[in-house]
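User: quick one
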Amino acid sequence: MSDTTYAPSPEFAKSAHIDADAYDRMYAASIEDPDTFWKEHAQNLDWIQPFTKVRNASFKPGNIDIRWFEDGQLNVAANCIDRHLATRGEQTAIIWEPDDPETPALHITYNQLNEKVNRFANVLLSQGIMRGDRVVIYLPMIPEAAYAMLACARIGAVHSVVFAGFSPDALANRINNSGAKVVITADEAPRGGRKTALKSNTDAALLHCSDKVRCLVVKHTGGQTTWIEGRDIDVKAQMEHASPDCPARPMNAEDPLFILYTSGSTGQPKGVVHSSAGYLLYAGLTHKYVFDYHEGDVFWCTADVGWVTGHSYIVYGPLANGATTVMFEGVPTYPDASRFWQVCEKHKVNQFYTAPTAIRALMGQGKEFVEKCDLSDLKVLGTVGEPINPEAWNWYNDVVGKGTRPIVDTWWQTETGGHLMTPLPGATPTKPGSCTRPFFGIEPVILDPQTGEEQTETEASGVLCIKSSWPGQMRTVFGDHERFEKTYFSDYKGYYFTGDGCRRDKDGYYWITGRVDDVINVSGHRMGTAEVESALVAHSDVAEAAVVGYPHEIKGQGIYAYVTVMNGVEPSEELRKELEKWVRTEIGPIAKPDLIQWAPGLPKTRSGKIMRRILRKIAEDDFGALGDTSTLADPSVVDDLIENRMNRK
Ligand code: WTA
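Assistant: Done. Structure below.
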C-alpha cells in the first residue's frame, strides 16, 4: 500500500467543475439534505411531467422499496438525443472506431443518431414490442448496439444486453429468464482480427427458447448465416423502410430501463433492474463530475456495452450530457499494443477510462508503444473494475499521463448504476490504489463482519456497506424481489451490503480489498465461482468441483478449479483440455479455468460443507496459514491437495 499523495494541480482545479472546497460543501449538503440536493440536480434532466416527491426509499427488512422521483415522467432516449438537437444536432455523438484500423471510423452526429434510433424504434414496434416488453441485445461493439438500447428506451421496452463473449447456453438462460420477445444480434463480431459467429451462437441459443422469440439480425460483416424465414429479420433492411419519426413515449421515473445479468455468490446470474430517471440522473452526473467533462470534450470508455460500465459510460452518461463518446470494436493489442494510444491520438481523446487488467497487460509490452503516440489531448485518466495495484497506477500516471493527468480510480458495481467512491479530478488528492472518497449522496460505512457493528473510528477495516439510497441504485432482481432482499439487505440489516471488503485509512480514504463472498474478478469481469462449478459438474466425467480465485499478475484474479473425477475416470491432460473447452462453451471464454487440479477429495466439514477458505489458501500457495483444520471430516485430503498444488511460487 502506497501512501504517496498526488494533489490536483492548481490550474486543473481552477477550471474544474468541482474543486476541493466545492466537494466539501456539496458533499455535506448532499448528506444533510439529500432531497434538496437531488431535487436541484434532477433539473439536469428534461421532464415531461415534473416530479413532486424526491426520495422514498426503505432498507427495512421485509420492506425493501426504493423509489426516486416516483410521480415524475420523462423519456430516457429523449434526454440522450432530442433535447440536444436544437443546439448540437451537427455535433458528433458517437465516434465508432472499427476493429480493423484500416477501416475508416464513423462520426455519427446527434441528428444521425436521432434518425437511426427512431427508425430502429419503429422496427421494434412493427415486431409488436410494447412498453415493458424485454428485448435481449447480443451485439458486437457497433453503433447498432447503442441504437438498439436507445430505441428500446424510446418506446419503453426494457433491454437486456448480453456480452457477445457469452456462450449460446448463457444467452439462452438470459433470454428465458427475462422472457424476451426479441433477440437482436449480428452475423459476426470481429475482434482482434478474428470473427465470432454471433448469429450461429444465437441460433444455438434459440433452440432452447420459445419459438415465438424473433431474431433481428444486423448484417455487419456480411458473413454467411443460416436464415430461418419468419423468425429472422434483417434489421438494416427494415430500418431503411421504417419511418424516421417515432414519438418518445412518456415513461414513469421508476419504469425499468434495463436488466443486466450479473454474477453473485450463489446460483445463476441475477437480473439487476435499473430505473429510468434515477439511473440516468446518476450516470449523467457522475460522468460530468468524475471525469470533469466539459462541452466539446471527446470521451472514451474502453469497456464493452455488455457490462454496466458500457451502459453508464459509453451510452447513457455521455449522451445525457451531450458529449462525444467513442465506441471501440477492437482490443488493446490489435494490430499491436499501441492501438489504445493510436485511437487516443486519432480522435483527440480528452478523457480515457479503462480497466487495470488492460493497463497491466500493456505495461508488460513496454512504454515505447505509448511514447510513439501523441497523447497531448488527454486531460483525465480513469480506471474501473478491480483494485489497481500501485505499480500499474504509477505506470498509468507516469507513462500515459506524463505525471500531469489526474487519475480517477472509480469503485462501483453493476448494482450501483454509477460510481460510488472515486476521486474528483479537480478536488481530491489521490493515493495509488485507493478509490479515495464517496461521491455526492453516498454514505459508506465499514461494519465488523462478525458483529455487524459500524466501525466509527476513522481507521477501520471490515465489510463495506452503504447506509442510504442514491438515485442510481438497482431496484430489484428481475422476477425475484425476495432474492434482492436476501442478497443485499439480509446479512447486515438496514444497510446495502456491497460484497466488498474495505479499509479506511487515517485520512478517511477508502481502500477496496476485494470481494468477501464467492465472487471472483477475472480481468475486471465478474464471475461467480458457483457458476463455474455448476458448469464443471455438468460434464459427465466430473463428480465434484470447487472453484476459487487466486492472484494473477495480469488478470488480477485467475480461476482455480479443484476437480474430482467420477469413479473409473482417469485424470489426463486430454481431460483437462476437454474441461477447459467445456466451460468455454457452457459459459464463455472468460470463465475458462486457468488452473485445474485433480482432487481425489475436497476438504469438507463433518456436515459436508466445502471449506473454501482452505482451498483459497492452497490456490494462493499460502498453505502455511491454513488455520484450524480440526473440523474437517478427513484432514488427510488437505495434504494431498498441498502436495499437488498447481500455483507454486
Ligand atoms: C470490483 C463494475 C476495486 C469490486 C463497475 C466490485 C473494484 C465489483 C473497483 C463490481 C475499483 C469495481 N477498485 N474494486 N475501482 N471497481 N471493483 O458489477 O469488487 O462488474 O464489487 O461492476 O468489482 O463488479 P461489476
